[in-house]
Amino acid sequence: MRAWQVGTPGPLESGPLEFIEKPMPVPGPGEVLVRVLTCGVCRTDLHVAEGDLPVHRQHVTPGHEIVGQVVGAGPGAERFVLGERVGIPWLRRTCGVCRHCRSGRENLCRRSQYTGWDADGGYAEYTTAPEGFAYRLPEGFDDATAAPLLCAGIIGYRALRRANVPPGGVLGLYGFGGSAHLTAQVALAQGIEVHVLTRGEQARGFALQLGCASAGDAREMPPVALDSAIIFAPAGDIVPYALAALAYGGTLACAGIHMSDIPVLDYQQHVFHEKTLTSVESNTRRDGEEFLTLAARLGLHPTTHEYPLEQADRALGYLARGDIEGAGVLRVADPA
Prior knowledge:
NAD(P)-bd_dom_sf, alpha/beta, Quinone Oxidoreductase, Chain A, domain 1, globular, NAD, zinc, 2 domains, metal-binding, single chain, Rossmann fold
């Protein structure tokens, strides 16, 4: 099969991604073999390719927003029937027995594994996944629009919950890519006033089209004090700006798996008045099920831009430069 792999992690300009031919994977016990139809292009894939995240699997195939058809099953896998459409997300496996798993916080499991980092992902024609961590997808979303729901959407949903926005409150979104544009739609549907702060002029215009109240630069103060804020951009130097923009008692959630260093904070300006700074680590399967149900009920409209599988490196380059409005998606195959 055709697939991408990370050779030597490094800047995209150095060519860390390699387009190769490799054997089809074989599903293990409890796993399904999936023919990939589409795969979203996520910033975490960029972190894996460029080495921002440590190598967990040599020559890994990235991609963890996978929509595909079940074409095979390993021993004991009975949840899906052949031909059924499934979604494969970032969270691939947890231990199921640690204190975090047993308390409903499986996203904090120290033995968790991740698609496209610990195991080969969806920048390929076929992949495998444990059937207990795959999702049935709402019928209202086609293969391209369903893909970004599986990470950008789910992580944005968890970040929104972690941000503790009060009913009818004011939310700031720092960065406006695949995850933020879905989070904004959920927040707007809930009656929340949304202000976007991002570097890209095109992204600001896109935010205003979606109904956000304002769109400005990430290093400027928003027009009103924020009850809550979420940082999607992997830039730690934004944290002081976002904290300074919070109203008393506000919450800032950092949604990325990787972020550059946060500068020294001034206690009075950034932290005092009972402000909260929190992070978001992956998600639970319950988060995913809740979000997919909500996405179908709200009729979310992910904005996507398709690229053929062989242009995955180019799509990641657009993402790195902030040139993608919405979410990039690789078109790998059409339904059989």
